[in-house]
Amino acid sequence: MQNAHASAAELHKLAAHAHRTAAEHNERGDNETGNWHSRRALEYSDRAYALAQEAHAKSGRIETLK
Amino acid sequence: MNDSHRKAAEFHDLATHAHFLAAERHGKQDHLSGHEYSRRALEHSNRAHEMAETTRRNERGAAETFDSKVEEESIMSKETHTTAAYHHERAAKSHRAAAQQSSTGAHEASQQHSAEALEHSKKADDASKLAHQESAQLVAAPVLAK
User: Fold this and answer.
1) Which of A23, A49, A52, B41 is the most exposed place for a label (fewest CB within 10 A)?
2) Which domain holds residue B122?
């Protein structure tokens, strides 16, 4: 369960970084590169959200077992 | 826009023809007709100039409207990416807190952070989808304008 949270945190961090890079490229008018980083951000985001759901489900099970 | 250019060219042709007729009449000492053709040539020339000016203004207006639209969309896209990044960072923080509490055996606190993490994660994922949608539109925009 700890691992799931740690992995989710890492993926969210990568998504945030990709979003900030996309924003910088969009600001400079380099929309092609901005879009590329945006797609990467979305991929990290989807994986992070899936892991967040998984981690939370495990958290709930541990709480119920107590 | 091509239609305006074509009309301006027609007025130029009419002006040229009237100038030619005026010169011909003046050459034949028919100064009264020559003067009349000269007047018509000037009128056609003025119409051609007005038409060209109108076309130029319209083209410049359209280009400025497009440029400001692209600039506005770039700013919007930057803001949505920054918002998405913020939600992802909040989610990452909550996940780390959940992992930390879990490692110390504080499962109740861990579950609370886990619920917060899931909430931020959902918001972050929605924000990522919106930001990517806007980025994709920015890439498609110059193609549509052509």
Assistant:
1) B41
2) 2-145
